[in-house]
Design brief:
The complex is a heterodimer of chains A (about 425) and B (about 425).
Chain A lengths: L1 E5 L10 H13 L6 E6 L12 E4 L12 H8 L5 H8 L27 H18 L4 E5 L4 H11 L3 E5 L3 H5 L5 H13 L2 E4 L2 H10 L7 E3 L9 H4 L10 E6 L8 H14 L3 E6 L5 H10 L6 E5 L4 H8 L3 E4 L9 H7 L4 E4 L12 E3 L4 H13 L1 H16 L3 H19 L1
Parallel strand pairs in A: 1-2, 1-4, 2-3, 4-5, 5-6, 6-7, 8-9, 8-11, 9-10, 11-12, 12-13
Chain B lengths: L2 E8 L22 H29 L6 E5 L1 H10 L1 H12 L3 E3 L14 H19 L5 E3 L7 H9 L4 E4 L3 H4 L7 E4 L6 E4 L2 H8 L14 H9 L7 E7 L13 H14 L3 E3 L1 H7 L4 E3 L15 H4 L2 H19 L3 H11 L1 H5 L17 H22 L6 H37 L1
Parallel strand pairs in B: 1-2, 1-8, 1-9, 2-3, 4-5, 5-7, 6-10
Antiparallel strand pairs in B: 6-7
Classes of the chains: A alpha/beta (about 425), B alpha/beta (about 425).
Chain lengths: ~425, ~425
């Protein structure tokens, strides 16, 4: 079984949860002996782990024929892919794109991030997908998140192979209901053209059915999982410098994540438990607003902001935490509570998070219920039994949530769409 | 005869390093030594040293007619002692001429007058000691941080034994009145006030090197003639500014040093003298009282304290700082005391101001929120350290009485031991006999 996947992020250079999920899922699927995955991303850095799949950098695929020598290609692209691949792609250029701005190899440039001209990058991505779809051999097309839906549809139109789209999030989650019409159009178009839709939680599945008017038979939930922690991460020492209990919020500080409920709950907890400290790790467009909110609640000496965290820093914060809180207003899945539980941190999540569907040993509260949230935080930092129980059972639970199982579910969906097609 | 009263403010804070949340409880050093040294050296070389040389030269060449007053914060003096001791020496040289007056202020250039009266008085004492130690004089005139003044502050200053204070001639306080007279506080009639002449002061601090100003270029001749042309009864022209006007805010190539050097000559021609604040207070009587119910300062168009305590971030930080004050004053540990002063500098609050976003206003931080986060992390560590000194459960008052008891007991034991020694000697003597 050969799958052609379109994605936007891949570790180690990731900006959000999408990259982590893409990595975990493909790695889990690669455990199936006959699975062969080709994964396209806008801009590889050359240090991605290619041991279990093949990565194609969309910015290394020519769309305009240029007369370049093998040596030039080897020198420029050798670090990213087999140079011969470049010439294979060049033989499949399907239209005259010489009016587009391309570099000396005939390739389009990509930022690989979420720039202001994102819609243009999405369009460019789909142009290049046409070349890739004509060159590669595959049985099924798998597009991750709305950014790559147009590319998936394009590839499907060319090859006639079935298209599976993977909904990691919808714009309803990101915007608390005020969807961007451009994004909605791309998402809806992708879902309408897909042969099957995979959602990361039942919550998202419900959104897809109700808000995007999809046939429920066509939508299946495959919950995300979590990669086991590497020994390197397990070895990170606890750098906590204070004796106080530390309660952590970790993630982008945006409307979707419900940071204000965390601040309000903190103010309530600190009234009863002045020995607690709260950490809001991450950055985002609501950060300054949150700093102000904490200041106006007079808790700034016990409420700390760390700014953007990356790589190991994330785990340093987790290891020093006594409670992890994710009060997301609408979270399609949310991998980070699983990571916290792996580090042995008791976790409180909102009922409006996808991961709440599969976690039993995490405290679940409504995101808006500040009192309940404060109560849960208080009991974990005050009663050691509660803390230890959640720590132990949570770790046990999360260690059994494996990508391998998620991969098997995706495989069954592949088989189903292929048999429906022929 | 008209007289000019020149006063310069000198202050540099100990800027904080990037202090992460993780450092709380582990790292107790808060300062960006590299940046602090770099800035104080740069300003000393561009401003303090050449300006001191210029002023010394002016005093000598005018046969002692030129006079000037300085207010140097204790924290700036500390930094100069560490990084640029030659500046201290040059101030000592100026002090020796007798034509220079040093004013009193809060040691840390702090906002304590607005939130912590006990600390305010404590810091004035400390500043007096510092000036006495370095320059051998006890300051007689008070100048609060950034010329902050209100009726309440005037009471505290008067209680500290001061008969004169200098402050801002804010338009909304003076109304139709002129700043070119002596006034007194309406609550403490014996506290005389000198008010800054905004127009003449800002001609030098804001407009001197501005090409688009219609009076550019400003010459000493023109400037003195403006002063001479003020109405006859207005005898006192108060020019208060930051010392950095000389060489830093106005670069040497703008001619600022030459401008100053030429001032005494043109002033003498028009019969205008120079005086220090004390001399003016001794010679003139107040013409009226002024009432300032809400604090004023010399900053921004509003001339209020909103640059330091205007938004919730600043108010929160200031509140948390003041809450711990009483505890800190019970502490004897020198490092805690030192950090306490450094953290009180008004500059830390100025960096958190949201009034100046994108429109100048120096800050070592990218934005006010970062300034706030960093300061609060440092302050949190500081609070942990202070609380580690004494059990938190004991009230301040109780703690104070316990400490007094311990101290008294210590003294008593000492006295008794002395007595014991005396009797032992006696006993030894009688035994010999």
């Amino acid at each position: 079984m050969k799958a052609l996947m379109f994605g936007w992020e891949f570790p180690p250079h990731i900006l959000g949860g999408l990259g982590t999920a893409s990595y975990g899922l493909t790695k889990g699927m690669a455990l199936q002996p006959d699975m062969d995955i080709t994964f396209c991303i806008p801009k590889p850095w050359g240090d991605e782990d290619q041991s279990f799949l093949k990565i194609i950098g969309v910015n290394h695929v020519p769309i305009v024929w240029k007369d370049v020598s093998m040596d030039t290609v080897r020198e420029r692209l050798g670090k990213y892919m087999d140079p011969q691949k470049y010439f294979d792609f060049r033989d499949h250029i399907y239209a005259d794109f010489s009016y587009r701005y391309v570099n000396d190899l005939g390739c389009l440039e990509f930022s690989g991030r979420y720039p202001d001209n994102l819609l243009e990058e999405i369009n460019n991505y789909s142009i290049v997908a046409g070349v890739i779809a004509r060159t590669e051999q595959y049985d099924v097309i798998h597009a991750h998140d709305w950014l790559t839906y147009p590319a998936g549809i394009h590839a499907k139109n060319i090859s006639g192979k079935p298209l599976v789209i993977h909904v990691h999030a919808t714009d309803y989650d990101r915007s608390r209901g005020n969807v961007n019409p451009d994004v909605y159009r791309i998402e809806k178009d992708g879902m309408d053209n897909a042969d099957h839709i995979i959602t990361v939680s039942n919550l998202t599945r419900q959104t897809v059915i109700e808000k995007y008017h999809q046939n429920p038979d066509k939508v299946t939930t495959v919950h995300n999982a979590v990669e086991p922690l590497s020994p390197e991460i397990l070895a990170i020492p606890n750098k906590k410098g204070v004796k106080d209990k530390i309660v952590t919020f970790l993630g982008r500080i945006t409307m979707q994540k419900g940071p204000e409920y965390f601040v309000e709950a903190a103010a309530k907890v600190l009234k009863k438990a002045p020995y607690a400290r709260f950490v809001m790790a991450g950055s985002g467009d609501m950060m300054n607003q949150m700093i102000r909110l904490a200041a106006s609640r007079n808790i700034s000496d016990r409420f700390h902001f760390t700014g953007f965290m990356k790589g190991k820093q994330v785990y340093e914060v987790l290891k020093a935490s006594d409670v992890y809180v994710m009060p997301s207003v609408s979270e399609p899945f949310g991998i980070s509570p699983l990571e916290a539980m792996q580090c042995g941190v008791p976790t409180i999540i909102s009922k409006q998070s996808g991961c709440a569907e599969i976690l039993n040993y995490a405290v679940k509260v409504d995101y808006w219920d500040i009192e309940m949230l404060a109560d849960a935080i208080y009991s974990i930092i005050t009663y050691p039994a509660m803390h230890d129980f959640l720590q132990k059972e949570g770790k046990k639970e999360v260690d059994n949530i494996k990508w391998e199982y998620a991969g098997q579910k995706v495989r069954r969906i592949y088989e189903q769409v292929i048999s429906n097609k022929y | 005869m008209k007289t000019i009263c020149l006063y310069f403010q000198i202050h540099q804070p100990f800027r904080l390093k990037r202090y992460r949340f993780f450092d709380i409880g582990t790292d107790h050093y808060y300062y960006d030594d590299f940046q602090n040294e770099e800035i104080i050296r740069r300003i000393a070389e561009r401003c303090y040293l050449p300006a001191n040389r210029t002023i010394l030269e002016m005093i000598n060449s005018s046969n002692g007619k030129f006079k000037v007053a300085f207010s140097i914060s204790g924290i700036a003096l500390e930094q100069l002692e560490i990084y640029m001791p030659e500046v201290i020496d040059s101030f000592k040289e100026l002090a020796a001429t007798g034509n220079v007056e040093f004013l009193s202020e809060t040691y840390a250039h702090s906002l304590s007058s607005l939130g912590d009266p006990a600390e305010f008085k404590h810091q004035i004492k400390k500043q007096e000691d510092k000036i006495k130690t370095l320059f051998g004089v006890k300051p007689k005139v008070f100048r609060n941080t950034e010329l902050i003044y209100s009726d309440d502050i005037s009471t505290m200053v008067y209680e500290m034994g001061y008969k004169g204070m200098i402050t801002e001639g804010a338009k909304h306080i003076l109304g139709w009145k002129s700043p070119n007279y002596i006034y007194s506080s309406c609550v403490e009639p014996h506290l005389k006030l000198l008010l800054k002449n905004d127009k003449f002061s800002e001609d030098l601090s804001e407009r001197f090197s501005n090409y688009s100003w219609n009076e550019y270029p400003l010459t000493a001749d023109k400037y003195i003639s403006w002063i001479a042309n003020t109405p006859e009864p207005e005898q006192i022209i108060n020019l208060f500014m930051n010392y950095e006007v000389l060489g830093s805010l106005n670069a040497p190539e703008t001619g600022i040093f030459e401008f100053f050097k030429a001032l005494p000559r043109f002033a003498a021609e028009k019969g205008i003298s120079f005086s220090t604040p004390s001399e003016i207070f001794a010679l003139h009587k107040p013409v009226d009282t002024i009432s300032v119910p809400y604090p004023i300062s010399w900053v921004d168009e509003e001339r209020d304290c909103s640059s330091w305590l205007g938004n919730v971030l600043q108010q929160e930080a200031f509140k948390k700082l003041n809450e711990i004050g009483e505890r800190v004053r019970l502490c004897e540990i020198r490092r805690i005391r030192q950090d306490w002063y450094y953290l009180q500098s008004s500059d830390h609050f100025y960096y958190m101001s949201t009034k100046h976003i994108g429109s100048g206003g120096f800050s070592p931080y990218d934005n006010p929120y970062e300034a706030f986060t960093n300061y609060m992390n440092v302050l949190s560590d500081f609070i942990v350290r202070v609380n580690a000194q004494f059990p938190e459960t004991i009230e301040n008052e109780e703690l104070n009485s316990l400490l007094t008891t311990i101290k008294n007991q210590g003294e008593e034991i000492e006295a008794l031991e002395k007595e014991l020694a005396k009797y032992k000697k006696k006993a030894a003597k009688t035994n010999k006999k």
